[in-house]
Amino acid sequence: MLFLFSARAPLQVAADRGAPASEKASTGFLRGLPRRFWLYAAVVLLYGIVETLNGNWSGLYLTQQRGVPTQWASLALTAFWAMVTIFPLSISFGGEEFTRLTAVISGELIAFYQVGYGIAAFGVGPLSEVTTVPLSTIYAGASVVAGAMIVLAFLVIKSQITKAAQASA
Predict the structure, then answer these.
(1) Among residues 146, 139, 136, which one has the least CA distance to residue 87?
(2) Would you give the distance in Å from CA 159 to the centre of its chain?
(3) How far is it, in rounded angstroms, from Cα 123 to Cα 158?
(4) What is the pTM of this model?
(5) Dihedral (C-alpha) 119, 120, 125, 130: value to the nearest 10 degrees?
(6) Residue 15, SS3?
(7) Is there a contact between 62 and 72 (Cβ–Cβ < 8 Å)?
(8) What are the pLDDT digits (tens) for 93-113?
(9) Could you give the CA distance from residue 169 to residue 161 in angstroms, rounded to a whole number?
């Protein structure tokens, strides 16, 4: 319903004439965003894939392919969701790093997370059915995605530490 009501709304936002050029450029879709934004976007996209793969498919994987009793699979899923609530900080970090563009950065990062969610939520079933790839192989692939997340997170943290060291010197 919201889409129907908003479909005719203009997609252009008037830039504030007093705003710096960097902020004016950011009013276009993904234009003018800092380079480091793309690092955050990659982390959030991959996070969305891994989180959704585990949240949506782990029960089925554990019970049907690994023979884990339903109670234990439910306990594993509960533990997963408990851990997810402890480090959803990428969006907050992005907003803090780009303080002049906090709303734009946060909104764009949420969009990238949702794309990752969509890939895992709506792609795993067809991938498994069409290619007959078992969930165990998909989960192994998710380990590669998680490894990529670790590398990207390290790059974000490393540059933050470098900036902090330069600021204190």
Answers:
(1) 146
(2) 20
(3) 33
(4) 0.66
(5) 50
(6) coil
(7) yes
(8) 777 778 888 888 888 888 888
(9) 12
